[in-house]
Amino acid sequence: MAIKLITDTGCDLPKSLLEDLNVDVMPLMVYLDDVEYRDGLDISHEDFYEKMRAGSKTRTAQIPTPVMEDTFNKYISQGDDLLYIAFSSNLSGTYQTAMMLRNDMIEGKETNFQVLDSKCASIGFGLVVYYAAKDIEKGLSFDQVVENAKNNARSMEHIFTVDNLEYLYRGGRVSRGAAVVGTVLNIKPILDVEDGKLIPLQKIRSRKKAINRMLEIMEERGTDLQGQTIGINHGDDLETALMIKSRIEDQFGCHDFIINYVGCAIGAHSGPGTLSVFFINNQKK
Q: Which pTM does this prediction carry?
């Protein structure tokens, strides 16, 4: 019996990598000036961020329930063991919807179907999916794949900064006053995701200093960094993402990276210029 791994576009993994790993991906929904797009399918990252910079208003929505239901039913009907790793329940209602569908679908059936709240976002979430897919490739049992995914989700670190506080204000993450003052003073906040929630860590003056501090936090919190796959993503700023990769290689001896855009569903709230690093902190397990 096969194990089928499903996730959603909040994981921000490259499409080609997801295809290679045989992971089915359901799209979150994004809106630019009330025009609907499927994240990762209907609009390129470049066009999305260009429209944001031009002033388009953004909002997001869950995976449509019929899409989720059809995807789950497809694999249940095939008799597969099914694991859906979901975007943090504190940032999206997708997990709750999936749980309701799962409970209805398994009633009276003998099937392994687990829905895991990653309590992670972006490539932090993506790394949980990536390691689960690798465990499936290794032939681990369904229960062991699920247990390892839970452990990786608990130990995942998300350290990021945004270039413009306006987008966090629009998403209700900071006040209008904080956004205005931060812009005037060139404040680049350092943020984290803890237990699935967005947590501010520090306020840094200048983008260069914010990047330096991100790497300091990585050194403070990371464990066995050299042996990990490190995630880096960017809000349409590949040049700086590659510079961060080079610094991590030099400082920590890392050699395995996943680098990608901040996807549209998350970028709608963080904005162009966002920069993030993701890694495992085994002390959190």
A: 0.93
